[in-house]
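Hi D.,

Good news: the full-assembly prediction came through. Inputs first.
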Amino acid sequence: MKGDKKTKIVKTIKIDVDKCNGCRACEVICSAFHATPKYSSNNPARARIRVVRDPLRDVYVPVYAGDHTVAECAGRDKYTIDGKEYDECAFCRASCPSRDDFKEPDSGLPLKCDMCESDPPLDEPLCVQWCLADALVYEEREEEVEEEVEQDEMEAGLEALATKYGLQKIMDTVARMSVSKSA
Amino acid sequence: MRYAETGFNLEVDLTRGNIERVETDPRDTELYLGGLGTNAKLLWDRVPPEVEAFSPDNLLIFAAGLLCGTPATGCNRTIVSTISPQTKLMAFSMMGGFWAPELKYAGYDKVVLRGKSPDLVYLWINNDKVEIRDASHLRGKGANETAVLIREELNEPKAQVASIGLAGENRVFFASIEQGRSSASRQGLGAVMGDKNLKAIVVRGTRDINVARPEEYMELCNEVLEYIKFRNENPIPGVMPILTGLGSPQEMQVHDEKWHTENFMWGNSRVRRKGFWTDEIERAWTETMESMRTRLISCYNCPMKCGATISPPGSPTYMMKCFSKLTYTMAAMSDLDFGLKIAQRATEYGLDGFSTPQVMAFALELYEDGILTDDDMTGIPSGNDERFFWLLDRIVRREGIGDVLADGTYWAARKIGKGAEAYAHNTIKKHEQLPLKLSMLNPIYFLMYSTGEKINITQIEGQFPQAPWPTREEREEFVKDWIQVPDERFKQYLLDWELRGENSIPYYPTVEMCCDIVDWQERMHYIDDALGMCAGLSSFPLKPPYHIHNYPKFISAGAGIEMDEEKLTQATRRYRTLVRANNIRRGMRRADEKPPENHWKKRFPELEKELLDTYYKFKGWNNDGIPTKETLHELDLDYVAEEFVKRGILTEADESPKEDPGQNESK
Ligand code: SF4
Ligand code: SF4
Ligand code: SF4
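Then the structure:
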């Protein structure tokens, strides 16, 4: 879908892997913030940032959850940087069938970083605030973009479910649920 | 609903291969909090003094502290408790790292192991799925190596592994349990794990941990983070480098080792090397550290980076923290290059970095003095550094003399005889201590050394400065924002404390003040060990972010247990007394509560007696160090009093039977 030209604030988190100490505080606070009610629970497996951490190989990569993808990549990449070999998918943001990252542990619903959307907005995303090592630094800049209609969270979730169970089954379930709720 | 804790323990019978998930009693959490507190209760209930360390009836408990897995910064401690083969008392070492929170997310507060597996196995806890798996292919593998292999075979890169190396398998009395970044090292926990034929416990958890009052809890967490930032920007002036900031002693970052190398003892805790720290040494050691250290790293949910990955040329990478940086170097009278290399091998073997170097230096001293002979040391190389590697290999395999040494200096000396006892001069309650020999008795440290039941000075000291600043202005400056004191009177103690003259050690702080100070310092450590908090953010450093005033709030908002300072102090006294009760039941008495004879040159027998008399009274213990019936009653520990009377430890009149020689002499 194409829209009009418009200036928009691009929110960027600059990640300095050399500064990361592998503490996973970013995962902790992200999962607490997104709990319902807010901060009522905590579970790094639900975080929208995951730290790929392997100290013996000196690998530390904080990765943010991006979009859901229905199929895994046909080919995979392996990077070697400064003599360190990174696992396949180490830098990838997708919640994808090939791995557990960026999915709710029980339902398997995809997770996506929303930059800590909240009302009123926070000064800085929480993972940035809790990273005292300055491995995560927040930046905003203005950019001219073509407006796109963003897929909202529920739609993304439903789409993932549809892929998993088929659309018909979801519609049946919703129908059954609404009957039992109203009964 | 249970908050902060999961409310479930995993009970594993290794003999029968039986695994059960058992719901715990929330009333126990109120009484004993969690972690160390509830561990002490389990050991009291289930491990009578007739059970020895290497009995299948001994329990080995891995506990996540009460607040582990919540967003409280630095709350990541696993408290491992059992009966020590070396001290024969209750051992409760703890480790940082990532294991405890993972256990919570898997849905358990503790793993309670009993029995003995017929074959070498490891335990794999993956949320609800828990299985005992064959580990015969991991026999003899290094502790780190084991972790890597297990993660690979399970295809679970995020699993956390606590494992033992060869030392634990061979029941070396100072074997550790290793967990990559951290280890539970003191008092031979790894030997008990090895005796149970358990190579590792592997955990992966993806469940929620709830807190009772979320907004309030988060506010407390944020305040702590803010205070950490403040302390990082405001180091404490006028103290040695490692005491200026927060965290475990920042040995991986600090290059200036003048204080340690010139004040701690070298060799078998014998030689003080004044003037050792020259510019040349500083340059060489800095170069060594910088070339081998790949990165400073933190434990789970903590910004302090107290550990480091170290890659010695030609050896695999390992992780190190704290004072083990210097213990091998100084025991061997060698350099840092040697220290960092041998520590790599010792870490894979899974050994305590305090006891191990001392045991080896002890052996070489005996050899030099002809008490150990060429027959005992057949094959020993001639080079100094090589001798340490040689001894290390013998000890973990219990080969030849290594078999004797593997029991630690206290027991080895008794086996060797011929006057070797005099060489095992640096133990308390049979356990090797920091290599420190000082001049003037320090009354606060006298009490801590004597009565500390973790038997390690770093696990009881903290909070109160180790010495006064020379000028009153400096002291006034320090107390200005000293919010951590439980009462204003502690500020006065410090203000009036002088380096010289009437108000200096050993008679100032006065006996009463010393009791007060020691009690406060100890209390903070016990709270940490129940909540799972790192001592480096609480009981150990000066002016830490966690203290007696905000802890009750953390417990209330986090665990949903209404708490105030008084109630928390009372709970801490309760399980602290229960730890002592376990040890009293095992024969520990006043006679065992003493620092090494040569710890200070200038001793004051009368003052020392008065200190101990008064402190025992202050704690509600009788003159033999046994908690009185009245004290036990006040602490809801009547069941302990009953057992004491039944066993003849206390008479109806609250006295201990005459002439109780204590543990040292009787066993
Ligand atoms: S909080 Fe920062 S230092 Fe810690 S793991 Fe995340 S990115 Fe790394
Ligand atoms: S920006 Fe917010 S939502 Fe995104 S990963 Fe960080 S804490 Fe989570
Ligand atoms: S202060 Fe240091 S030792 Fe303590 S939890 Fe933090 S990183 Fe670990």
